[in-house]
Design goal:
- Helix content is about 75%, strand content about 0%.
- The protein is an all-alpha fold and about 110 residues long.
- Helix 3 packs across helix 4.
- The protein starts with a helix and ends in a 7-residue tail after the last helix.
- About 0% of the residues are buried.
């Protein structure tokens, strides 16, 4: 059984909805802008100064652009992923997972840990 099929079998209805919206936004060329909008809605106060909003959007977009540019640079030539490609992708995932854990720890403490 392929990894994609195993992953699909473990998906919750919420995961499936997120995947569907992600694909739709990507097809429309709006994935990163939608990510920014979600982050801004969650973290920026409604009365944030316009310059702060603009600066944070630039930082968000710069991070996305850096990641994309780096991915395009680091991949080995050819259509099929190499072992080195997969190792690099695993390291990027680990780095982003660690950041996700940091966000969760700092902004979404579990009951009894705050």
């Amino acid at each position: 059984m392929g990894e994609q099929k195993r992953r699909a079998e473990r998906m919750t209805p919420h995961d499936q909805a997120v995947q569907e919206v992600t694909r739709k936004l990507t097809d429309e060329g709006k994935l990163i802008e939608a990510g920014w909008a979600g982050l801004a809605a969650m973290w920026l106060p409604a009365d944030a100064p316009p310059q702060q909003v603009a600066d944070l959007r630039k930082a968000f977009m710069a991070g996305a652009q850096h990641t994309w540019g780096s991915l395009m640079t680091m991949l080995e030539p050819g259509a099929d992923p190499t072992t080195a490609d997969m190792s690099r992708m695993d390291k990027i995932q680990s780095e982003l997972d660690a950041f996700g854990a940091e966000l969760a720890r700092d902004h979404y403490p579990t009951k009894g840990s705050a």
